[in-house]
Amino acid sequence: MGQLSGKSIYLTGGASGIGKAVTEAFIEEGAVLTILDKSAEGLAELKKKFSDTVKCIEGDVTVFEDHVTAVRTATETFGKLDVFVANAGVFDGFAKFEKVSSDAMSEAYDMLFTINVKGYFHGAKASVKELKKVSGNMIFTVSGAGFYPDGGGVWYTSSKHAQIGLMRQLAFELAPEIRVNAVAPGGTLTALHVIPPLQPFVKIVDNETKEKSIKTRNPLRIAMTSEDHVGAYVLLASDKARAITGEVISSDGGLAVRGLS
Ligand SMILES: NC(=O)c1ccc[n+]([C@@H]2O[C@H](COP(=O)([O-])OP(=O)(O)OC[C@H]3O[C@@H](n4cnc5c(N)ncnc54)[C@H](O)[C@@H]3O)[C@@H](O)[C@H]2O)c1
User: Fold this and answer.
1) What is the similarity comment for this entry (predicted)?
2) What is the pTM of this model?
3) How many angstroms does the Cα of residue 190 sit away from the middle of ligand 1?
């Protein structure tokens, strides 16, 4: 018996990176998944690999109706919804506030906050009724940027702080029926996408440079992979975490103890 045996989980952004690794880990632990992602190609790969264990919905987290479709698909296919994982997100590429034009600043704000923050609001709202029926839980992918500067630029960092605020307020409002927690990965080797309005203002680095830079920025000197974070998600989704709500598990190589040197 896996730790998530029989659980029906709805996860956004499962076609790539951290969401894909979490999807695979959840399936290994006995769960069935409904995935919402905009990448048709990534979803087709998931479907090929996992067949009836996953239902894939091609859509956009900024569209509330797409979440409603995903939740309905999960309940019609698997009979219930136990866990919602808000994970799909985009990046600002460490763009510097002063260097970005005011038009690009505004466009980037609307785009990044609509995906990273409103996307989480939408998913939570669409899931809450079904989660309440089974005393389920929500897990938000946040980031070290939800606590500290220099995990991105102002757009990404403020969006990740906002996600933590949303998580804590929901944990307060939805108790005692629903637990709400977060996982905060540190810099991870994925294809995390820099939004178009900020692309002219950032340097896109190759994977080798990215790996070196991530390693020097955390005390454990790890350039993390998506698989490094899955244990935290499995724990929070499982009944073993029944006393945990309103918490963030940091999976970041020790950013909180990096000191000043
Ligand atoms: N990579 C890192 O260093 C890092 C660190 C901390 C937190 N995170 C967070 O992890 C989460 C996943 O990012 P990742 O690094 O795995 O990136 P990724 O690009 O590999 O995966 C993101 C997935 O979300 C999907 N997506 C993006 N926008 C969408 C939209 N509007 N509608 C539907 N699907 C959409 C993409 O198609 C992709 O499959 C994000 O919330 C990100 O902020 C990443």
Assistant:
1) Belongs to the short-chain dehydrogenases/reductases (SDR) family.
2) 0.98
3) 8
